[in-house]
Amino acid sequence: MMTPSPPAQEVLKRICAAYAARPFAAEKLERHRPEALCRAELQLAMMELRQAGLVELRQKIWGEQFYQIPPQELAAIQWCCFPYTPKPLSAEAVTVECPADAGLAGQLFQALVFTAQQGLPLTAKGSIHKKQASRLAALLPVQDKHLRGLFPPAADSETCPLAVTVMVDLMLVLGLIERRESAYFPDMEKLESWLGLSEPQMTSVLYNVILNRYGIDGPAPQHFRYVISSPAFAKGNWYPLGDVLEWMSQVRLTAEQPLEALQSACLAWLGMLAGFGWCELGYTEGGACCFRWTEHKPLLVTGKMLDSDPKNLSSIFGESEGQPVSGDEGQFIVQPDFEVLVPPDVDYRLRWGLACCSELLYVDELWSFKLSRMKLEEAAERGQTPEAVIGWLASHARGGLPAQVEMSLRQWARSIGRTAWSEVILLACRSEADAADIAAHPRLQGSLSRVGPLHFIVQHDSTELVRKELSAAGLAPPRIIGGREREVPPQKMVYFMDNKVPVTGIYTLPVQEAQTGLLGGGAVLQPLPLPSSDTERLILPGEDTVPQMWLREWREYHITTAQKVMEQALVWGIKVRLSLEGQICDFIPEQLRGNPWRVTGGLLPAGTEEREDAELAAGDWKEMKLLIPQKRRNSSSA
Length: 638
Fold this sequence. Notes:
The chain is α+β, with helices and mostly antiparallel strands. This is Helicase-associated domain-containing protein. Keywords: ATP-binding, Helicase, Hydrolase, Nucleotide-binding.
């Protein structure tokens, strides 16, 4: 990436400190102009930063413009402009107050399994049914206590636990579920590609999503989230929270937010990380609050790796991550008591297959499933024969199935599928004459069967044909069947997936829209195109009408002309080089006063950035010349 010039770096540092990656109104930019820069130099610095992709100019629908550091660039900018090496606690005893729960990737897996098997029906108001929300909440390790303080109270908070709202929001943002009619359903194609990722890849995607989507709003809390995400905070080491906040205050990353309020926001964030299995909270013997990352600390993806080529997601973990494994590695273990143990190296697609034929007990370092007759029956009801299930388990179990387990499975299989329910449509007639006409219809003989004087059974796949023929005969039945419209059959689910690259390809994060998900989702600001070289000419409007000697010649002018030269510099927002008391200085004019004529601004010895405020009259200086700012071009070799 191209390296910005020193003036541009200083502007970037000031913007970063004040706003982090939050958008700010373009008219506020002047507040952060370095004292040694004139207005024109500030605009050139911003153009330079935009061309380097370090700052974007965005616009609302009605035209209001905002500058913003792209969130994916904030980490690199922050670590470069504000380097920090935290000091871990020594061997001092720490009492764990908030231990880490199971990892978020596993918890999300539980929510996906629940959605696929139990469903997430919605009320008429669009809320998740209270009964189903409570059932899902009971399965999740993360609880509302981990999430309090991070989100404003929701209207349906009494009916839907916050942990469920967050989990559904994540599934929607990741594109793994979609709303259809009155319920959420899995997007099986997107889900299959998601399950093709390794757990570290899932964790990284999840962390980069929640990093800016959740958490207390404002620059200071956002700075904290990125500071502790840096590689300087090693896994397993305890760090005092107070030290981090004190350093942030020293380098002015607190955005003038009171430390007490900032500490509360930071504790809420760390509590959520603990609920997601990534962090632990504790306190020292002296009562100081501290935290540490677990071994599952997410990798913060910097740059645009998540937004460009999805193959980059694999490359940041190494080529071996997420690839199929051979031999006994990557296989689950079936115990004689029907428990299935899943080591960390087992592919998530195989875990999904297990969840479709056994009960998921818990997700931790070692996952646990339980085989049962009921789950074998449920798999059969969803289209997987017991023989297929048994064969799949045997082929992916390390060392095969224990003899007693296989014997029981096959015994259960013999009693499954001997009888089955069949759903049919009953066609009722008002008279025996109409029934007789229908029974005699030559094109309906294979589509319905008479079961009484006034009634016929119609197979599901023949309803449209029967309706068409009866309509032509003047006997059209209504489209409403049994008091309700025919429901669209649910999408066919994928149950067993081997540890191979999914047919749907590598997972990519969907494009985020304002209405995506249940939480967050502010207005989406549209980025404006990058400035061209012609745009820089607009910094000095009317340059062709200004006498060229003002720009090129170092000379002394009549007082009236000297005033005009200085006024032109103020209009353009540029510096003037002048001879003052025998010294060469650069002057930044900022305000004019009349009667008598005066100009105030910043005075800098030529070639320095040591500014002092000054007020000058037209006769105070001798020679002068307008200074046109250099239009610096970035260079990748800079």
